[in-house]
User: Fold this.
Amino acid sequence: MGHKVESVDGAPVGGFQSILMMPPAAGTGSAGTHGIYRAGSDHRKDGEAVGW
Amino acid sequence: MLSAADDDGNMVSWVNSNYALFRSGITVPGYGFILHDRGALFSLDPKSPNAIAPHKRPFNTLASGFVMKDAAPLMTITLMGGDMQAQGHAQALVSLFDLGANLQAAADMARFHHARSSASNSLPWGTRWSRSTVRPSAVSNRS
Assistant:
């Protein structure tokens, strides 16, 4: 029973990209992004997060 | 696959796939791309909820995602790779919200892929992971 665990290269575990809108500072309302996004991208695949 | 956001707070989480081989082999004249063949995922069993029928789309793995807060998008989460998508989303969100990782750390963390079989379960071996970090013998026989 159980699983035969094997190590693999990156592709079988997918490629991740994400952008998080940072919450507004207290007392500044909720509109817009307040100039701050955070991002992450998978080093196993494209591994790129670009902002401008 | 794409995650994008603009300065007005609009966000896009996008996963594209043409599916197998040369896909449908049908192009749209003047547009230069090939249509997918995801219709192959329909079931021919009329009792199946995934049975082929007009105006239906087949069950498939494509799952671009958002995390919502107060009915507004907070975060894109895009993770391609067949049936890795839903389980990868879950692992990344655990890394973010339960383990306190930032987005890049969550992207870099080791992930497992359950291959719908007890015969195989995989762990990543990305460039930042050494064999001393990921030791299959340490986790084998733990389902």
